[in-house]
Amino acid sequence: MHWVVSNVSFLARQTTNVLIKSTVYKYFAEMTDALPGQHLHSFLIAMINPLYRTVDAPAKISKSYRILGGKDNMFQKSLDNLKQLAMLTCEKLKQKCGHDIFLKAYNVIYRRVADVRTDRKRKQKVLAVTNPELFQEMKHKKQIKDRKKKKEVKNFALNFRK
């Protein structure tokens, strides 16, 4: 059972597909209802991990889709629905497992994500000082990739509105 939950959790973290994420979150909610609280403790971190990333990281997503028409477009609504579903699933987990146990697991995920982000930023700053040529090359590649992505999103928006 733990293998299934961890693989489904990994799938939800890796994909950008809203349908897959919502299906995983519904599975987590149903599993929360079906299992007793004691059995959920072993799955709690695996279940909270993708939920945390959906609830607390919408800024990255909304930047790309602002081009599609802002808050009133269909995709933004589906992202808002996904966030609501993730919040409801978190509430179910909190009620079933207990507030203290849920918050401990939530804080573990929060610290892990924060540590990875700060480590990534620190490595970039060290690279900028130790090897500025490589840093500039990587920065230039990222800028090209971002421009290409922005162009793709604009083309998608134009085709979507037709």
Overall geometry comes to flat
User: What is the string of SSEs from the N terminus onward?
Assistant: HHHHHHHH
**Uncertain stretches:** none
Radius of gyration: 19 Å
Describe this structure in words.
The chain is mostly helical. The protein has a domain at 2-109. Helices cover 86% and strands 0% of the residues. It is built from 8 helices and no strands. It has helices at residues 2-14, 18-34, 37-40, 44-56, 59-65, 74-97, 99-130, 132-161. Helix 1 (2-14) runs antiparallel to helix 2 (18-34), helix 2 packs parallel to helix 6 and helix 7 crosses helix 8. The longest helix has 32 residues, at 99-130. The radius of gyration is 19 Å and the shape is flat. The mean pLDDT is 85.
Secondary-structure map:
Elements: H1 2-14, H2 18-34, H3 37-40, H4 44-56, H5 59-65, H6 74-97, H7 99-130, H8 132-161
Helix pairs in contact: 1-2, 1-4, 2-6, 4-6, 4-7, 6-7, 7-8
Short structural description:
By secondary structure, the chain is mainly α.
Keywords:
mainly alpha, single chain, 162 residues, flat, 8 helices
